[in-house]
Amino acid sequence: MVENYVSLIGEIVLKQPNYNVRVPIGIYLFFSYPQQAPAVYILPQQGIHTINTGNPFIKGRSMIEIPYITNWKPTDHTLANLIQNLINLFSRNPPIVVVKKENSLHNYNQNNNFQQTKTMTTTKPKTKKELLIEKIKKRLIGLNEENEKIIEELSSEQLQLEKNQESISSGIQSLQLQTNTYNILSENVENQDKILSEWLETNKSQSLDNINVAEILIPIDILSKQMLELSAKGLAIDDTIYYLNKLLQNGTISTSDYLKKTRSLSAEEFITIELAGKVYRTQQQALSILY
After folding, report:
1. What is the pLDDT of residue 242?
2. Which of 288, 286, 178 shows the shortest CA–CA distance to 226?
3. Which of 118, 139, 157 is at the close of a domain?
4. pLDDT value at position 208?
5. Smallest Cα–Cα separation from 79: which of 148, 131, 19?
6. DSSP conformation class of 209
7. Which of 7, 38, 37 is closest to 24 using CA atoms?
8. What does the pLDDT read at residue 236?
9. For 59, which of 50, 64, 65, 278 could close a Cys bridge (C-beta 3.0–4.6 Å)?
């Protein structure tokens, strides 16, 4: 199967003590780039370069294999960093050997004591192929930047989705705990209702005048006893205030006595309600720990 790819042909410059080595390379970007790492090859010119077989990063005849390529990550690695890695690694051990000839285009002068001469340079017009390669390079750089932005946005969205998933999981666990607590409380209510129904069925023939309510409603713990006493006290205060209103209307007591007694009862009722609220919250906390 033939796979589409884009080839980038050029040179990397390796700085050496007495001269610079220009290494011709080809970088091949496949259709799945940047998910797939680029392939890099040395493109030696016949009669000018020979491959340095002692270089550990040369595989086969001319393939370059460095850690930056083998450990390629599309979210972190770029072509610019790839080229810089090639320069850094090959500067210590160039992958090619320059064959020095008099008529060679790459004839490097190793003698630093040379005379400076003024020369006139002419710029050769670029071919259509070179212009196309430059255009493709710019387009690839732009696509790489766009892909990096897209990857960053997707990573941010993925992080937000993970947070939302954690929040939903926590909510589900909370609902499950509340459901279990409700089921337990519902079962307790059903059991108590069953006991009460059985008692009523057993005692339905007895006269209500002989039934002592205080013997039937017996609190089973301290908090229940406190709540029962506070509820009874609150109701007693309400009844007292009601009858004080009746006495005031009938003119049995004076207004000053009425107000004095009502203020006293209102203060006592406020304290009773607050204590009942604390007892209730303590009961709820005990239930949440129990279930």
Report:
1. 92
2. 286
3. 157
4. 61
5. 148
6. G
7. 7
8. 92
9. 65
**Residue among 61, 69, 97, 108 nearest 85 (CA):** 69
Predicted pLDDT of residue 32: 85
Q: Is 123 inside a domain boundary?
A: no
**Residue in 74, 75, 56 with CA at minimum distance from that of residue 66:** 56
Integer Cα distance of 192 and 194 in angstroms: 5
Cα(82)–Cα(90) distance, rounded to whole angstroms?
A: 12
| Type of residue found at 109 | N
C-alpha dihedral (96, 97, 100, 105), degrees to nearest 10: 0
Alpha helices in the chain (DSSP H): 67-70, 79-92, 128-203, 213-216, 222-250, 255-290
70/31 Cα distance (integer angstroms): 18
Q: Which residues of the chain have pLDDT under 70?
A: 1-4, 100-125, 205-217, 290-291
Range of the domain at 10: 5-101+129-157
* Amino acid 102: pLDDT: 37
The pair of structure tokens assigned to 40 is 């890099």
The predicted pLDDT at position 237 comes to 92
Counted domains in the chain: 2
Q: State the pLDDT at residue 267.
A: 92
Are 135 and 261 found together in one domain?
A: no
pLDDT value for 51: 82
For residue 79 the two structure tokens come to: 């072509």
Tell me the per-residue pLDDT of 134-160, one tens digit each, with 9 for 90 and over.
888 888 888 878 877 888 888 788 888
Q: What does the DSSP 8-state code read for residue 124?
A: P
CB 87 within 8 A of CB 10: no
* Whether the predicted model's global pTM rises above the 0.90 cut: no
Within this chain, do residues 17 and 152 fall inside the same structural domain, yes or no? yes
Local structure of 220: helix, strand or coil = coil
The pair of three-digit structure tokens given for residue 92, joined into one six-digit string: 């210590």
- Residue 98's pLDDT is 79
User: How confident is the model at residue 272, as a pLDDT?
Assistant: 92
